[in-house]
Amino acid sequence: MFPQRLDSSLAYDIAKAMMDGFNRHYRLFRTESARAKHRFETADWHGQQRAQRERIEFYDLRVKECVMRLEKEFKAGEQPMDVWHQIKLHYIGLLVNHHQPELAETFFNSVTTKILHRTHFHNDFIFVRPAVSTEYIENDEPAARPTYRSYYPTLATLRETIVRIIDNFQLQHAFEDLERDAGDVLDAMSGRLSHVKLRANFQIQVLSSLFYRNKGAYVVGKIINGFVELPFALPILHKPAGPGCDAGRGQAPGDSGPLAIDAALFGEDDLQALFSFARAYFMVDMEIPSAYVQFLRSLMPRKPRNEIYNALGLAKQGKTLFYRDFLYHLRHSSDKFRSAPGIKGMVMLVFDLPSFPYVFKLIKDYYPPQKDTTREQIKGKYLLVKQHDRVGRMADTLEYSEVAFARDRFEDALIEEIRQFAPSQLEISDRDGDGHEEVIIKHLYIERRMIPLNIYLQEAFDAGLDDARAREQVERAVIEYGNAIKDLVAANIFPGDMLWKNFGVTRNGKVVFYDYDEIEYLTDCNFRRVPAPRNEEEEMSGEVWYSVGPRDVFPETFGPFLLGNDTVREVFMKHHSDLLDAAFWQSHKERIQAGHVHDVFPYDRDRRFVHRFAREAPR
């Protein structure tokens, strides 16, 4: 029970110290996000990537700092529970009029569970549900920047309004021809507005901060006309420096030309692709993140709030919201966790809840001899993916420890499978003492569920390739598979195990990689051709007769494992035969080592305003 009176001054001091710890965290987080503007202006691509990696570590560092301060100054872990009840109530008071209350609640949870060594999300000392509303938070200070700006053009002034929208971001790097770019955007808009009557409320709303990721800066907003709202995004890129440069291959940091609007993206699907769970987090300077999430939710109503927080770099808040959504789903469902369908992995044990669109992955205790790895090495691979630019081709993961599930929601066969392959990760007990037995998983990853690519292909094979739709499904999947690998290559990633089962198909038909235990940086691999046999004995040998180093990769050997089906081979060889050539991989490795950062677009290349580059291309 909560105390009737707040009579502990120590409780207030601890709550205030925790709030100071959070405020320091968000101040540093926001400062680093704001610096993305300068890195974009100066084409500091490596700096941008480094900042994105380092920012992910900010949260845990600030939590650790706060825990150390509370233990040193207040011996917080030794305080009785009635003091901790008061700490939470004082903290709630400090959240009134705060601009990031939901993030501060999550920070409180992180610090408190570290000090009290709580293993479960359910207790009176943390925020199981939000205590303070995030609705309609505003900064009323005169110099404060609004969450979004509204513009009220007419058809006659649309072009100059587009120019004004871009100018308001005050980018300190010149555009090649902003008037021309505005015309390109207007042309793209005209197809949606030319036969539409403009209503009294016709307006354009644009979020006040640009969204920075990799080599792009994105304007994000919506067009409102009557009862219709049309989401849009405008990617701004640096043009390649110098005549004749390939606009699609990337350039070295600092080596760039003037700015240009590269495309105009419209509609929820385009925005979903831009904010995909398979892409790196944006850097955005937000004073009131909940207001940004609310605006983005109006553009993508099907996207869970937890994934929007993740996309904004607020992954801990994303985890909190995911877990709340998960608990809510469990209360309103009755199906059971089961072993996930598909080919069993050698390193990860995967299970799911059929009614819930995610899968749960835990690292096994034992691996076959060909998997020369350890639990810590596997966790390191997943951390690499978390910190890397995922270029729309690697699924984001949520990492949890000591997760409790109701025992009666597990199929017995799944419990036995965990006991057999990951006994160190399993505890079954009534740890809370409430009379209900629970399954406690020590450590797991959670990912969006996709259709495994091998199953997706098999569905088409089962339908029969004489069926035009089935054949189209195979062709599309194989082309997408190769494109996914090439995007990973451009991002300096070698997938390691390229079997079909390690890739999944999303709702929009994108192929995404999700098995990370053999992932490597491309630049750490040595790509070789298989040496010609020196004699007949070597040619006929079933064993490898040549030396193979631990980082050696022989791309021409991929074929037998991937291309057993004739139709698959035909499509693959037509579109992606270069993936079987060591020279392809080696050339990309050398470009990356030379400092080049490749362009990987979160939209189809045919959406680009490529004609503007062609205007000046040498004939």
Could you outline the blueprint of secondary structure elements for this entry?
Elements: H1 9-34, H2 36-41, H3 45-74, H4 81-95, H5 101-116, E1 148-151, H6 158-167, H7 178-193, E2 203-207, E3 211-213, E4 216-225, E5 228-238, E6 259-261, E7 265-266, H8 267-274, H9 289-299, H10 305-311, H11 315-331, E8 338-339, E9 348-352, E10 358-363, H12 375-387, E11 398-406, H13 412-421, E12 426-429, E13 438-448, E14 451-452, H14 453-463, H15 468-490, E15 493-494, E16 503-505, E17 511-513, E18 520-521, E19 526-527, H16 536-540, E20 552-553, H17 559-562, H18 566-576, H19 582-593, H20 611-614
Parallel strand pairs: 19-20
Antiparallel strand pairs: 1-2, 2-4, 3-4, 4-5, 5-6, 5-7, 8-9, 9-10, 10-13, 11-13, 12-13, 14-16, 15-18, 16-17
Main location: cytoplasm
Catalytic activity: L-seryl-[isocitrate dehydrogenase] + ATP = O-phospho-L-seryl-[isocitrate dehydrogenase] + ADP + H(+)
EC number: 2.7.11.5, 3.1.3.-
